[in-house]
């Protein structure tokens, strides 16, 4: 090395200025005062989640572009990366589960009506996949978030991009009967297309398996979140105004249902 590591700071870009570490470490402000020891873990975990949500949205948008260019292998690769991030998100729950119900109760009141329910980026991820509930736009906490959700409500989802790519590459979704009014593809017609595709086009089938991997990963997260909620607050209602675990159980459903239902027909 030409530079002596002990010669003091060098001008220009450094670890801290490149990654903006000082700003990052300024963002963990506890609501409890005097500070409750366990609140820092709760904030850290959630902030890390939001950073990964940002990365997931970045990658999902890329996957839509790649599918639009019929770059099937690269789209699969990108979805594999998202799937791996989701695995990290699931395993992060282990850290939060080291918090006992009493430790959580020590600062829960400070959360007031705040809830994961209000995570705009989580809803954006759902919209990007194709799980679009227009009511989520109205519920977002501020206008910038509503605007982002409105944009994604109207933009083609990852699922739309898959169907368009498959249609261009020999797998159109046919109408169920002659004279059918054109409209969104019915689940039956999509299943028929997938059934043929899995038998006839192994390359396209692998892409569909990458979609299935991702969908399974998101459902794994939802399931583990429910278990964490049950062990932490039992059957109490949530701070967001829902029934809590009972509500969350109803959200464990696939984003790409046809990829699951078709399996009964092989
Ligand atoms: C001790 C830890 C946690 C508890 C007790 C908890 C509890 C809850 C409850 C009860 C709900 C239902 C909505 C409501 O508040 O009424 C909810 C929703 C939600 N939580 Fe958590 N949560 C915890 C950790 C997390 C973490 C680490 C994340 C990661 C971002 C998260 C993200 C979400 C999301 C996205 C929803 C909305 C789910 C949906 O509507 O499909 N939660 N949580
Ligand atoms: N909904 C949780 C509170 C909670 O977990 C939370 C509160 C504020 C910000 C994020 C949260 N995480 C997930 O819902 C509860 O009812 O205790």
TrEMBL record:
Residues given in the record as heme binding sites: 225
Matches recorded under Gene3D superfamilies: 1.20.58.480
Superkingdom field: Bacteria
The keyword Amino-acid biosynthesis belongs to this UniProt entry's keyword annotation: no
Enzyme class (EC, first level): oxidoreductase
Positions that bind substrate: 42-46, 108, 239
EC number(s) on file: 1.13.11.11
Keywords per UniProt: Dioxygenase, Heme, Iron, Metal-binding, Oxidoreductase, Tryptophan catabolism
Pathway: Amino-acid degradation; L-tryptophan degradation via kynurenine pathway; L-kynurenine from L-tryptophan: step 1/2
Pfam families: Trp_dioxygenase
InterPro entries linked: Trp/Indoleamine_2_3_dOase-like (IPR037217), Trp_2_3_dOase (IPR004981)
Catalytic activity: L-tryptophan + O2 = N-formyl-L-kynurenine
Entry cofactors: heme
Cofactor binding notes: Binds 1 heme group per subunit.
HAMAP family the UniProt entry points to: T23O
Functional description taken from the UniProt entry: Heme-dependent dioxygenase that catalyzes the oxidative cleavage of the L-tryptophan (L-Trp) pyrrole ring and converts L-tryptophan to N-formyl-L-kynurenine. Catalyzes the oxidative cleavage of the indole moiety.
Database matches in PANTHER family: TRYPTOPHAN 2,3-DIOXYGENASE
Family: Belongs to the tryptophan 2,3-dioxygenase family.
Oligomer status and interactors: Homotetramer.
Name of the molecule in the record: Tryptophan 2,3-dioxygenase
Lineage, uppermost ranks: Bacteria, Bacillati, Actinomycetota, Actinomycetes, Micrococcales
